[in-house]
Amino acid sequence: MLVIQICVGSSCFLRGSREVIETVEKLINHYRLDDVVVLKGSFCMEHCNDGVTLKIGDKTFTGVNRESITGLFEKEVFEQLYGVKNDEPDQHK
Ligand code: FES
After folding, report:
1. How many whole angstroms separate alpha carbon 78 and alpha carbon 18?
2. Is residue 88 part of a domain?
3. Fewer CB near the last or first residue (10 Å), C or N of the chain?
4. Which residues are CB-neighbours of 36 under 8 A, at least 6 positions away?
């Protein structure tokens, strides 16, 4: 099970963590990952000056917003779940 924790501390909340959470919920539904990904709110992660903060597995990301979360989710979640790197061009040999 891959855990995504999104900070809902006051600074991140004011910077839009609720919209990020809503987008992550939609992505989990869209990719039908609810059996393998769990979404949690988190208290302050001590990156308050860096924008909305979240963790995907053990990796921490800051400055996330409603626009950037989709690309980050697609790259990190698939990479961590399946070892698939989505940011490299296809290599056909
Ligand atoms: S409120 Fe989110 S890191 Fe502090």
Report:
1. 23
2. no
3. C
4. 1, 2, 81
Q: Determine, yes or no, domain membership for 90.
A: no
Domain that residue 75 falls in? 2-36+43-82
Tens of pLDDT along the chain (93 residues) come to: 999 999 999 999 999 999 999 999 999 999 999 999 999 999 999 999 999 999 999 999 999 999 999 999 999 999 999 997 765 555 554
> Does any domain span residue 91?
no
Strands 37-42 and 59-64, bridge-based pairing: unpaired
Number of domains in the chain: 1
Which of 49, 52, 53 has the most ligand 1 atoms within 8 A of CB, as the residue to mutate?
Answer: 53
